[in-house]
Write a structure and sequence with these properties.
Elements: H1 4-19, E1 25-26, E2 42-49, E3 52-54, E4 59-61, E5 64-72, H2 77-93, E6 104-115, E7 122-132
Parallel strand pairs: 1-2
Antiparallel strand pairs: 2-5, 3-4, 5-7, 6-7
Helix pairs in contact: 1-2
Length: 134
């Protein structure tokens, strides 16, 4: 039996792989903070935290999903991140149960961080979602 976090990550991977524009890679995170530019543009969903509370009859899980996109761009990286936000948000908003693995998926925050240096700056786009799972 798979843990609910695994089910969620697998479902998000499938949803984003189906909707990713040509040239984008959607894959599991490998734990590195910023990928090499040869891997960009790429998206890696993770679940960095999962607050859990216990009700009278069952555990209530409320994982936080982070979808991180990395874009290597010499100029206008923030615009490319905005374009990625549009299709990522649309893909996840189209199925707020993420294929039936949660009750609700709510977008709560977006951050864009440039990482200068190297051949090209790498822009990091993070979209955070609160999930409700029972």
């Amino acid at each position: 039996m798979l843990h609910v976090r695994t089910l969620i990550r697998n479902s998000v991977l499938a949803i984003l792989q189906q909707s990713a524009p040509h040239g984008w890679t959607v894959r599991k995170s490998d734990g590195r903070p910023v990928p090499d530019i040869s891997e960009c543009p790429c998206i890696m969903p993770t679940i960095p935290s999962e607050p859990v509370s216990r009700g009278a009859q069952r555990k209530r899980r409320e994982p936080r999903l982070t979808v991180t996109a990395y874009v290597a761009a010499a100029a206008n990286g923030d615009d490319v991140c905005d374009e990625a936000s549009v299709w990522i948000e649309a893909a996840l908003d189209s199925d707020p149960t993420l294929g039936g693995v949660c009750q609700d998926c709510t977008h709560i925050e977006t951050t864009i961080t440039p990482h200068p240096g190297g051949e090209l700056p790498v822009w990091e786009l993070s979209l955070d979602y609160n999930l409700r799972v029972s």
